[in-house]
């Protein structure tokens, strides 16, 4: 995720990421390990969590893509909080990780990623272009 989007999440929800620079507690110092298309999904989840948590202590440990889906790892939380997280994780399987449009799972050489048709075509075009760059003239 682009730094400016990460910074927006860190500044809007500082209580969730207060230990981000302590690598013994949190991996958030490495940032959000996914692409920009899931920003809105993560922002909505954080907004919903903030409204539900009241004053409960809550720490986000890591946010990343794994096997094509969003993973939002947290410490121990009540079931209703886990349900909100699970809902967002499931939504990620229908959301293009690059642009946020409706997408579907793409598997290329063992790498899983949810992409919309436009991003899938662009990724394929980039791959072809890069293949030709490798050949000497």
Automatic annotation (TrEMBL):
<protein>
    <submittedName>
        <fullName>Uncharacterized protein</fullName>
    </submittedName>
</protein>
């Amino acid at each position: 995720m682009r730094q400016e989007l990460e910074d927006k999440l860190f500044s809007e929800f500082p209580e969730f990421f207060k230990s981000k620079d302590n690598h013994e507690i949190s991996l958030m110092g490495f940032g959000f390990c996914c692409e920009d298309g899931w920003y809105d999904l993560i922002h909505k989840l954080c907004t919903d969590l903030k409204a539900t948590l009241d004053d409960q202590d809550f720490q986000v440990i890591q946010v990343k893509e794994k096997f094509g889906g969003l993973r939002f790892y947290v410490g121990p939380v009540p079931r209703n909080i886990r349900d909100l997280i699970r809902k967002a994780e499931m939504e990620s399987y229908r959301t293009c990780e690059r642009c946020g449009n409706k997408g579907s799972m793409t598997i290329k050489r063992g790498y899983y990623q949810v992409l919309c048709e436009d991003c899938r075509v662009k990724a394929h075009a980039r791959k072809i272009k890069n293949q030709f760059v490798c050949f000497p003239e």
